[in-house]
Amino acid sequence: MAKLWLTALALLSSSAVWAGPKVEFETTLGNFTVKLNDEKAPISSANFLKYVEDGSYVGSQFHRIIPGFMAQGGGYDKDMNQLKTYAPIKNEASNGLANNTATIAMARTANPNSATRQFFINLTDNNFLDYNQRPPGYAVFGQVVEGFSVIQTMAKQPTHSVGRMGDVPQTPIVITKATLIK
Protein backbone atom coordinates (compact mmCIF):
# COMPACT_ATOMS: atom_id res chain seq x y z
CA MET A 1 0.00 0.00 0.00
CA ALA A 2 2.82 2.41 0.87
CA LYS A 3 4.48 1.71 -2.49
CA LEU A 4 1.21 2.49 -4.31
CA TRP A 5 0.86 5.73 -2.37
CA LEU A 6 4.44 6.76 -3.18
CA THR A 7 3.88 5.99 -6.87
CA ALA A 8 0.71 8.11 -6.90
CA LEU A 9 2.54 10.93 -5.12
CA ALA A 10 5.40 10.77 -7.65
CA LEU A 11 2.94 10.97 -10.54
CA LEU A 12 1.18 13.95 -8.99
CA SER A 13 4.41 15.81 -8.39
CA SER A 14 5.63 14.89 -11.87
CA SER A 15 2.49 16.33 -13.47
CA ALA A 16 2.96 19.52 -11.43
CA VAL A 17 6.48 19.91 -12.89
CA TRP A 18 5.12 19.63 -16.42
CA ALA A 19 2.23 22.08 -16.02
CA GLY A 20 2.80 24.12 -19.20
CA PRO A 21 1.45 23.85 -22.74
CA LYS A 22 1.15 20.55 -24.57
CA VAL A 23 2.21 19.72 -28.11
CA GLU A 24 0.94 16.65 -29.93
CA PHE A 25 3.20 15.19 -32.62
CA GLU A 26 2.03 12.89 -35.37
CA THR A 27 4.83 10.95 -37.03
CA THR A 28 5.11 8.22 -39.62
CA LEU A 29 5.71 5.83 -36.70
CA GLY A 30 2.89 7.02 -34.40
CA ASN A 31 1.85 9.87 -32.13
CA PHE A 32 3.22 11.29 -28.89
CA THR A 33 2.49 14.30 -26.71
CA VAL A 34 4.97 16.58 -24.97
CA LYS A 35 4.14 18.80 -22.00
CA LEU A 36 6.43 21.80 -21.52
CA ASN A 37 7.68 23.51 -18.38
CA ASP A 38 7.52 27.13 -19.49
CA GLU A 39 8.07 28.28 -15.91
CA LYS A 40 11.52 26.70 -15.42
CA ALA A 41 12.50 26.80 -19.11
CA PRO A 42 10.74 29.85 -20.58
CA ILE A 43 13.31 30.56 -23.31
CA SER A 44 13.54 26.95 -24.54
CA SER A 45 9.75 26.48 -24.36
CA ALA A 46 9.02 29.69 -26.29
CA ASN A 47 11.66 28.79 -28.88
CA PHE A 48 10.22 25.28 -29.34
CA LEU A 49 6.67 26.65 -29.63
CA LYS A 50 7.80 29.15 -32.29
CA TYR A 51 8.76 26.21 -34.55
CA VAL A 52 5.53 24.37 -33.70
CA GLU A 53 3.36 27.39 -34.43
CA ASP A 54 5.10 28.36 -37.69
CA GLY A 55 4.64 24.76 -38.91
CA SER A 56 8.30 24.18 -39.66
CA TYR A 57 8.62 20.97 -37.63
CA VAL A 58 6.19 19.38 -40.11
CA GLY A 59 8.23 17.47 -42.68
CA SER A 60 11.29 17.27 -40.42
CA GLN A 61 12.58 13.91 -39.30
CA PHE A 62 14.17 12.18 -36.33
CA HIS A 63 17.62 12.05 -37.91
CA ARG A 64 19.73 10.62 -35.07
CA ILE A 65 18.57 7.74 -32.91
CA ILE A 66 20.86 5.95 -30.51
CA PRO A 67 19.26 3.05 -28.58
CA GLY A 68 19.70 3.37 -24.83
CA PHE A 69 20.45 7.08 -25.20
CA MET A 70 18.18 9.42 -27.18
CA ALA A 71 16.16 10.27 -30.31
CA GLN A 72 17.04 13.61 -31.94
CA GLY A 73 14.95 15.48 -34.46
CA GLY A 74 13.62 18.73 -35.83
CA GLY A 75 16.62 19.89 -37.86
CA TYR A 76 16.52 18.02 -41.17
CA ASP A 77 13.89 17.12 -43.75
CA LYS A 78 13.32 13.54 -44.94
CA ASP A 79 16.11 13.94 -47.53
CA MET A 80 18.60 15.12 -44.84
CA ASN A 81 18.57 18.74 -45.99
CA GLN A 82 19.22 21.07 -43.06
CA LEU A 83 16.24 23.28 -42.24
CA LYS A 84 16.31 27.04 -41.65
CA THR A 85 16.49 28.25 -38.07
CA TYR A 86 15.78 31.28 -35.97
CA ALA A 87 18.58 32.81 -33.91
CA PRO A 88 20.24 30.57 -31.27
CA ILE A 89 18.93 30.77 -27.70
CA LYS A 90 20.46 31.01 -24.25
CA ASN A 91 21.18 27.67 -22.58
CA GLU A 92 18.78 27.06 -19.65
CA ALA A 93 20.35 23.81 -18.42
CA SER A 94 20.80 25.28 -14.91
CA ASN A 95 17.00 25.33 -14.45
CA GLY A 96 16.97 22.25 -12.17
CA LEU A 97 15.23 19.94 -14.66
CA ALA A 98 17.05 16.64 -15.25
CA ASN A 99 17.67 14.65 -18.44
CA ASN A 100 15.55 11.76 -17.19
CA THR A 101 13.77 9.12 -19.25
CA ALA A 102 11.09 10.64 -21.53
CA THR A 103 12.24 14.25 -21.07
CA ILE A 104 12.82 16.53 -24.04
CA ALA A 105 15.87 18.80 -24.21
CA MET A 106 17.45 21.24 -26.63
CA ALA A 107 20.22 19.90 -28.86
CA ARG A 108 23.19 22.19 -29.38
CA THR A 109 26.78 22.32 -30.61
CA ALA A 110 29.83 22.67 -28.35
CA ASN A 111 28.78 26.30 -27.89
CA PRO A 112 26.37 26.24 -24.89
CA ASN A 113 24.20 29.00 -26.38
CA SER A 114 23.81 27.49 -29.86
CA ALA A 115 20.46 25.64 -29.62
CA THR A 116 17.99 26.51 -32.36
CA ARG A 117 15.37 24.05 -33.61
CA GLN A 118 16.80 20.61 -32.86
CA PHE A 119 15.64 18.72 -29.79
CA PHE A 120 16.17 15.27 -28.34
CA ILE A 121 14.08 12.92 -26.24
CA ASN A 122 15.91 10.90 -23.61
CA LEU A 123 15.34 7.15 -23.94
CA THR A 124 16.83 6.58 -20.48
CA ASP A 125 18.12 8.64 -17.56
CA ASN A 126 21.01 10.63 -19.05
CA ASN A 127 21.92 12.65 -15.98
CA PHE A 128 25.50 13.04 -17.22
CA LEU A 129 23.98 15.68 -19.57
CA ASP A 130 22.65 17.74 -16.63
CA TYR A 131 24.13 21.09 -15.65
CA ASN A 132 25.17 19.83 -12.20
CA GLN A 133 27.04 16.85 -13.73
CA ARG A 134 28.53 18.40 -16.85
CA PRO A 135 28.31 22.20 -17.02
CA PRO A 136 27.04 23.83 -19.15
CA GLY A 137 24.64 20.87 -19.67
CA TYR A 138 21.70 20.35 -22.01
CA ALA A 139 18.48 22.23 -21.26
CA VAL A 140 15.45 20.08 -20.45
CA PHE A 141 12.19 21.91 -21.13
CA GLY A 142 9.48 19.24 -21.13
CA GLN A 143 8.49 15.62 -20.98
CA VAL A 144 6.68 13.11 -23.18
CA VAL A 145 3.43 12.53 -21.28
CA GLU A 146 1.66 10.31 -23.84
CA GLY A 147 2.99 7.92 -26.47
CA PHE A 148 6.51 7.34 -25.12
CA SER A 149 6.21 3.85 -26.62
CA VAL A 150 6.51 5.53 -30.06
CA ILE A 151 9.87 7.00 -29.02
CA GLN A 152 10.96 3.58 -27.73
CA THR A 153 9.94 2.05 -31.08
CA MET A 154 12.14 4.60 -32.85
CA ALA A 155 15.13 3.09 -31.02
CA LYS A 156 14.36 -0.31 -32.55
CA GLN A 157 14.56 0.91 -36.15
CA PRO A 158 17.64 0.02 -38.22
CA THR A 159 20.01 2.92 -38.81
CA HIS A 160 22.87 3.74 -41.16
CA SER A 161 25.23 6.58 -42.02
CA VAL A 162 24.28 9.34 -44.42
CA GLY A 163 27.34 11.34 -45.41
CA ARG A 164 29.09 12.32 -42.18
CA MET A 165 26.03 11.62 -40.02
CA GLY A 166 25.59 8.30 -38.26
CA ASP A 167 22.62 6.71 -36.48
CA VAL A 168 20.17 7.88 -39.16
CA PRO A 169 17.05 5.70 -39.47
CA GLN A 170 17.08 3.77 -42.75
CA THR A 171 13.40 4.59 -43.17
CA PRO A 172 12.86 8.26 -42.30
CA ILE A 173 10.70 8.89 -39.22
CA VAL A 174 8.98 12.10 -40.30
CA ILE A 175 6.88 14.53 -38.26
CA THR A 176 3.64 14.86 -40.23
CA LYS A 177 1.84 17.20 -37.82
CA ALA A 178 2.69 19.24 -34.71
CA THR A 179 -0.22 20.77 -32.84
CA LEU A 180 -0.25 23.07 -29.82
CA ILE A 181 -3.03 21.84 -27.55
CA LYS A 182 -4.58 24.83 -25.81
From TrEMBL:
<dbReference type="InterPro" id="IPR044665">
    <property type="entry name" value="E_coli_cyclophilin_A-like"/>
</dbReference>
<dbReference type="InterPro" id="IPR020892">
    <property type="entry name" value="Cyclophilin-type_PPIase_CS"/>
</dbReference>
<protein>
    <recommendedName>
        <fullName>peptidylprolyl isomerase</fullName>
        <ecNumber>5.2.1.8</ecNumber>
    </recommendedName>
</protein>
<keyword id="KW-0413">Isomerase</keyword>
<keyword id="KW-0732">Signal</keyword>
<feature type="domain" description="PPIase cyclophilin-type">
    <location>
        <begin position="26"/>
        <end position="180"/>
    </location>
</feature>
<feature type="signal peptide">
    <location>
        <begin position="1"/>
        <end position="19"/>
    </location>
</feature>
<keyword id="KW-0697">Rotamase</keyword>
<dbReference type="GO" id="GO:0006457">
    <property type="term" value="P:protein folding"/>
</dbReference>
<comment type="similarity">
    <text>Belongs to the cyclophilin-type PPIase family.</text>
</comment>
<dbReference type="InterPro" id="IPR002130">
    <property type="entry name" value="Cyclophilin-type_PPIase_dom"/>
</dbReference>
<dbReference type="Pfam" id="PF00160">
    <property type="entry name" value="Pro_isomerase"/>
</dbReference>
<dbReference type="GO" id="GO:0003755">
    <property type="term" value="F:peptidyl-prolyl cis-trans isomerase activity"/>
</dbReference>
